[in-house]
Design a protein that fits this description.
It is a multi-pass membrane protein. The protein has helices at about 5, 15-35, 45-65, 70-75, 80-90, 100-125, 130-160, 165-170, 190-210; strands at about 10, 170-175. The chain is an all-alpha fold and about 230 residues long. It is globular. Bound molecules: protoporphyrin IX containing FE (2 copies).
Length: about 230
């Protein structure tokens, strides 16, 4: 980005939030690609799933202490949903500096369902749940992700603003938002709390599953009788 381009934009998404987003995409992609027993990277399935869990722990804390548009109080606005949806259906979609009111529901749903998929996966691994339920939940998450990406692309087209680019650079154009100031960034204390959330989550995960972050050979549970010879 050239210097003049930079000054014609303003900060929206803080760096840890963007790292969270793209690392979560990476972790969930690896979880899906490794989910089949026959996958060449099958042993990475639980590592990917547990990594997503540590990322979620970070996001929960960040929702209280993170940068301005990362905070739950600043984007969960149930009362604004009706107006937003009406404008959208009437053909006047409105841009939002942070998440739009409808998108905020998707954010909560994505985070919540990811948590449920992880919980079900760890229950399967612990032998307390049928793998079919975990699989069905994972495919519901995949459908929600499809909806999420579709909505991001559609809103980008309708509002003439490249939302994906903003989630990469963290910045939006002043020309689209006259008089909007730089978003308030996270402080040093927030960064420490965010890091602490990740460390504590990793400790808790390793207490539950000591091999959580070591690639594990998975055994097929297709039949009730293990083959041995
Ligand atoms: C595994 C797949 C994905 C998951 C689980 C996911 C999840 C999320 C979550 C939780 C947020 C909210 C950010 C926050 O405040 O924490 C978000 C926002 C966003 N995601 Fe994704 N995402 C995924 C894939 C993608 C992909 C592939 C793209 C790009 C094509 C994308 C583009 C965006 C954008 C642009 C936003 C900001 C939306 C806005 O402007 O309000 N996401 N995503
Ligand atoms: C976002 C996270 C996750 C996603 C998207 C995901 C997805 C999936 C999918 C689609 C399957 C079905 C594979 C098949 O067709 O056989 C599966 C199986 C499984 N997953 Fe996950 N999973 C996630 C997290 C986890 C976690 C955190 C654990 C454990 C700690 C876990 C443990 C398992 C186990 C044990 C199986 C059964 C493997 C087998 O015996 O075939 N998963 N997962």
């Amino acid at each position: 980005m050239t210097n003049s381009e930079y000054t014609r934009t303003f900060k929206v998404w803080d760096t840890p939030l963007r790292l969270f987003h793209w690392l979560l995409v990476l972790a969930i992609s690896i979880a899906f690609l490794s989910s089949d027993d026959d996958s060449p990277i099958a042993s990475w399935h639980m590592v990917a799933g547990w990594s997503a869990a540590a990322l979620l722990a970070f996001r929960l804390i960040w929702g209280f202490v993170g940068g301005e548009h990362a905070r739950f109080v600043n984007f969960i606005r149930p009362t604004a949903i009706a107006t937003h949806a009406r404008d959208l259906l009437a053909g006047h979609p409105r841009r939002s500096v942070g998440h739009n009111p409808l998108g905020a529901i998707a954010v909560v749903a994505l985070i919540g369902l990811t948590g449920i998929v992880i919980w079900s996966g760890s229950s399967v691994a612990a032998g307390g749940m049928d793998k079919d339920l975990h699989e069905a939940l994972a495919y519901s998450l995949l459908a929600l992700i499809g909806l999420h990406v579709g909505a991001v692309l559609l809103m980008s087209l309708l509002t003439g603003e490249n939302l994906v680019r903003a989630m990469i650079s963290g910045r939006k154009k002043n020309s689209l938002y006259p008089n909007v100031r730089e978003a308030r960034g996270p402080g040093l204390f927030a960064a420490l709390l965010g890091a602490a959330a990740i460390v504590l989550a990793i400790i808790a995960i390793v207490m539950v599953d000591p091999t959580a972050f070591a690639p594990q050979q998975r055994h097929s549970h297709h039949g009730s009788h293990e083959e041995r010879d």
